[in-house]
Amino acid sequence: MSLLEVLRFSLRGLSANKLRSALTMLGILIGVAAVILLVAVGNGSAKAISDRIEALGTNTITVMSTGRGGSSSTSLTTEMSDALVDPALAPDVKSVSPVVSSSSATMTYEGTDHAVATFVGTTPSWFAASSTPVGAGAMFTADDVDQGRRVVVLGQTVAEELFPGVDPIDKQVTVGGALFTIVGVLEEKSSTGFNDANDTAIAPLTAVQQVLTGYGALTSIIVEASDPDRVDAAQDQVSTILDQKLDVAATSGSTPYRIQNASSLLETQTETADTFTTLLGAVAAISLLVGGIGITNIMLVTVTERTREIGIRKALGAPRRVILTQFLIEATLLSVLGGGLGVAAALIGSHFTIVGVKPVIVPSSIGLAVGVSVAIGLFFGGLPAARAARLRPIDALRYE
Amino acid sequence: MSKPVLEVRGLKKIYGEGEATVHALRGVSLTVQRGDYAAIMGSSGSGKSTLMNILGALDIPTSGTYLLDGVDVSRLSDAQLALARNRLIGFIFQAFNLIPRTSAVANVELPLAYAGVKPKERRRRAIEALDVVGLADRAGHEPNQLSGGQQQRVAVARALVTEPALLLADEPTGNLDSKSTDDVLQVFDDLSAAGRTIVIITHEDEVGARAKRLIRLVDGSIVTDVRQSPLHLPPVGAVAAAGRHHV
After folding, report:
1. How far apart are CA B234 and CA B243, in angstroms?
2. What is the pLDDT of residues A271-291, one digit of tens each?
3. CA distance readout (Å), B242 to A75, A91, B136, B149, B186
4. What is the strand order of the sheet B22-32 is part of?
5. Which of A98, A75, A76, A73 is CA-nearest to residue A85?
6. For an engineered disulfide with A63, which of A221, A223, A371, B99 has Cβ 3.0 to 4.6 Å away?
7. What is the three-state SS of chain B?
8. What is the DSSP letter of A227?
9. List of chain A residues whose C-beta atoms are within 8 Å of the C-beta of residue B106
């Protein structure tokens, strides 16, 4: 009896029990799709986390004062930020952006008020360093900073609050009694935490100092490293220069400033994401196990239920090999078809956002899920068939 | 005289162990010649089904020899046994044992498929066999669309489609009403008249009366073995039926 004949037998066997075949495939489908999607969701959330960290700027260093303000000996000044731009002492520093910020500025336009959460005064290099590109219009120039021109770039939230449905470019708003001309609007930024990153306005450092904060200490200095890999080197150079400027003794453990390194933050977050992936891998393994038990169950029931049929076939003179081949082909077809449909379902499902996470398929999870499911299907489809085929026909026939 | 189709010597079958031991067969010896039509009768528990299963190579005896068409069955490998069941024996079960959700013709084709017959030839012979049992017009029906008698006739067609040396029927009419019983018995009579070797198990006297030879089994041993009509002539049932047709 040729293999083609046996294949035809298998197909007939499957089509003779359409509902059972469909249910078996559904079981495998769900098992495979669940594993792939679960891992994809885990991977997706890990990606989302690292993307957000990336958006904060991975090659930047933020220098903040730890002094309680007032004391001029420990505060950061524009002089210091200027000193950091030093190709000889700090070759890995690409740009330095002094930042002053005010959280109490109210912006008024034609009688509409809006309290801007963070009103930032800085230099043009800040936009690149903080990965905050301008969407519409333009950012202000270094010349604007030098001249102390009162121009401002709005965050999305501010623009929508004050100019609903109106193009805000070239309009004038009042801040702290002074008129600012809007030159641009920032691109929408994804918010981290509870603060609305879009509720902001950016203006030249000099203008903000003049109007809002006065010429005192800087809030922070954002230093951009030439390369993400050089962040640590840049950080060392920056602290050396600052220690010099602030007369910090080399032996003293505490400094009057604090350096925040986004790349160390990213590292931590990557580790967290890895832990997250491992956790989801464990969840996937468990769901694979549960799915596998489901497949085992349905295969065992399906084949055991047909023990009598195997007995009949043996009584009619079917060799053990032919029976085994037929049932193995049936199990293979069900497993492979079910697995394939499961992969398709998972791929389709991954296009949708699941519990707020955009799933990102991990290719190896497809191989794993399909491989394990097909192996389980074959094993537990083949095993009872082999057992039944080994029985004496009369015992198989008597099987209830 | 040619070698017998079936020859058993000192056949014993013991089930269970210790106190639960059941001697289903206590040394049965029996020879069936080509063209014979033998009925084995006995009450429930007389071991007739056990004997039948051993004769059909579905079960193996505890001891004793079984020659099927001159071949010692106990020495056959699993693959050779499958071949013997396929080529030499046509088995008819009390419970029909058709493959469910599979058409009558596909059921009849099954043993031919295992014998390696080409699909076209298979279909032709299956239809022929169905024609013999008078069910050619029901070829496409599935078992649950057929009556009990029709299902059993499909099973008979399946048993004879390979033209086996021996037709074995285990209480073929046990699950049937009298009309269907008549239909099935008529098929057996016709087959016997056509020269087929048939061994049938029954507990119905009416069935036993139509065979050429009547063997009674009590407690696993043969007690009587009576020839009711000559080996070379058609069975009484066939004659009676032929007579009925002529009147």
Report:
1. 12
2. 877 787 788 778 777 877 877
3. 125, 118, 22, 21, 10
4. B22-32, B6-15, B63-68, B71-72
5. A98
6. A221
7. CCCCCEEEEEEEEEECCHHHCEEEEEEEEEEECCCCEEEEECCCCCCHHHHHHHHCCCCCCCEEEEEECCEEHHHCCHHHHHHHHHHCEEEECCCCCCCCCCCHHHHHHHHHHHHCCCHHHHHHHHHHHHHHCCCHHHCCCCHHHCCHHHHHHHHHHHHHCCCCCEEEEECCCCCCCHHHHHHHHHHHHHHHHCCCCEEEEECCHHHHHCCCEEEEEECCEEEEEEECCCCCCCCHHHHHHHHHHHC
8. S
9. 12
Chain A CA closest to residue B161: A316
Q: What is the mean pLDDT of chain B?
A: 88
Interface of B with A in 123-152 (CB under 8 A): none
Angle at A230 between CA A226 and CA A233, to 5 degrees: 115
The Cα B81–Cα A318 span in angstroms is 10
Alpha carbons B6 and B165: distance in angstroms, whole number: 9
B72 within 8 A of B245, measured Cβ to Cβ: no
| ipTM of the prediction | 0.89
CA angle, A73 then A78 then A80, to 5°: 60
Strand locations in A247-292 (E)? 257-261
List, for residues A157-174, the tens digit of each pLDDT value: 888 888 888 888 888 888
Q: Which two tokens stand for residue A15?
A: 């089509």
Percentage of chain A with pLDDT > 70? 91
Would you say B223 and B217 are in contact if contact means Cβ atoms under 8 Å apart?
Answer: yes
Query: What is the three-class DSSP state of A331?
Result: helix
DSSP reduced 3-state for A310: helix
Cα–Cα distance for residue pair A272/A284, rounded to 1 Å: 18
Q: Which of A136-140, B40-44, B95-99 has the lowest mean pLDDT?
A: A136-140
Q: What is the pTM of this model?
A: 0.69
Cβ neighbours, 10 Å, residue A138: 12
DSSP letter (8 states) at residue A357: B
Q: Is B58 on the interface with A (CB under 8 A)?
A: yes
Residues of A in contact with B56 (CB under 8 A): 315
Half-sphere exposure of B243 (CA within 13 A, CB side): 7
| Contact predicate B69/B88, CB 8 Å | yes
Single-letter code of the amino acid located at A326: Q
What residue ranges in chain A does DSSP mark as E strands?
60-65, 93-102, 106-109, 112-115, 118-122, 134-137, 151-154, 172-175, 178-186, 200-204, 220-225, 257-261
Chain A environment of B86 (Cβ under 8 Å): 316-318
Q: Across the interface, which of A312, A319, A394 has its CB nearest the CB of B53?
A: A394
The tokens for A242 are: 């600052």
Q: How far apart are CA B205 and CA B41, in angstroms?
A: 8
Chain A touched by B91 (CB under 8 Å): yes
